[in-house]
């Protein structure tokens, strides 16, 4: 007779298996603590990665947009160089930039020189966007004028719409006019504490060497280079309205000269060189340069000057009254010296 009980052992084994299956290790506080810690680390990891990615993307956008905007500003500044070859006695003096993430606002001031003083002639506010073309937000409208019939001058006088100063204009040497203004006389009759701008137009174009000997350089601020073709001037000559036959100062081509230093043929060569460089990207300047070359065929290629802007006190401008080669004089801006 045997003591072994196989059935009893099998039952005991089954109970042990059930005991093992009922044990839940995940509900243990220590295991839960590990899970919580792991989840927290994982969350921090995801948050850090998201933050880092966002920071990298934002930085890339900022630096990328600024690089694009700076490139557009540089091209815009190059485009502004065209203003150095036209606009009688008008200079873009300074520009301020207000940078945003996706655009830059540019404020530019334009000035005129009268004697040793400067006056603001115009202001322009432009928006340079990241994408798209540059737009003018506002301007002082100094580049436009208000035309008024002056009974005393017997002609239409144009006034700057920004500061209400008189605009200058030039009279072509080979176009007929009636009457021809002689407004230097008005300038000479003003008080000597005034600084006055006068546009003088010549009877005949002159080379720079000829002009430097006859006009001199004292109180001369700017020289006018006629860029109107002969055929165009023949058309202008047929116009009956006198105000439509002149060259407005802001549309005239020319260059600055110093009242302290003589100008020479080399001065004109610098102007032509600037015109050539700018003509590559500006069709108006390209056309003007072509006309200049046509007009200089009879002067052995030397630049011809058809007028000038002179400024100073009545006493300083007195000497221009005696110059017989001056055909017309037009009074421009006038300010107090003190």
TrEMBL record:
Pfam families: Sigma_reg_C. Residues 1-14 have a biased composition (Basic and acidic residues). Residues 1-24 are annotated as: Disordered. It comes from the Bacteria. Residues 190-332 form the Sigma factor regulator C-terminal domain. Keywords: Membrane, Transmembrane, Transmembrane helix. The chain crosses the membrane at residues 46-69. This is Sigma factor regulator C-terminal domain-containing protein.
């Amino acid at each position: 007779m045997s003591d072994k009980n196989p059935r009893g052992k099998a039952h005991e084994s089954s109970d042990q298996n059930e005991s093992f299956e009922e044990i839940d290790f995940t509900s243990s506080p220590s295991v839960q603590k590990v899970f919580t810690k792991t989840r927290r680390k994982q969350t921090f990891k995801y948050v850090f990665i998201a933050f880092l990615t966002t920071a990298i993307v934002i930085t890339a956008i900022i630096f990328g947009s600024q690089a694009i905007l700076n490139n557009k500003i540089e091209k815009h500044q190059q485009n502004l160089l065209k203003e150095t070859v036209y606009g009688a006695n008008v200079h873009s003096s300074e520009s301020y930039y207000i940078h945003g993430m996706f655009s830059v606002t540019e404020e530019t001031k334009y000035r005129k020189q009268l004697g040793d003083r400067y006056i603001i002639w115009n202001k322009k506010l432009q928006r340079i966007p990241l994408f798209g073309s540059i737009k003018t937000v506002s301007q002082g409208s100094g580049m436009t004028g208000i035309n008024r019939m002056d009974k005393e001058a017997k002609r239409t006088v144009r006034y700057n719409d920004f500061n209400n100063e008189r605009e200058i204009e030039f009279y072509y040497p080979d176009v007929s006019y009636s009457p021809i203004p002689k407004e230097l006389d008005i300038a000479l009759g003003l008080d000597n504490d005034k600084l006055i701008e006068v546009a003088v137009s010549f009877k005949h174009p002159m080379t720079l060497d000829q002009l430097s000997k006859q006009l001199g350089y004292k109180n001369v601020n700017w020289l006018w280079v006629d860029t109107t073709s002969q055929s165009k001037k023949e058309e202008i000559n047929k116009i009956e309205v006198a105000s439509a036959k002149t060259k407005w100062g802001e549309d005239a081509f020319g260059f600055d000269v110093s009242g302290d230093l003589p100008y020479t043929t080399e001065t004109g060569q610098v102007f032509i060189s600037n015109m050539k460089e700018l003509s590559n990207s500006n069709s108006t300047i390209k056309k003007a340069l072509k006309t200049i070359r046509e007009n200089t065929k009879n002067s052995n290629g030397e630049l011809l000057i058809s007028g000038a802007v002179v400024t100073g006190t009545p006493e300083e401008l007195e000497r221009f009254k005696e110059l017989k080669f001056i055909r017309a004089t037009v009074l421009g801006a006038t300010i107090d010296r003190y």
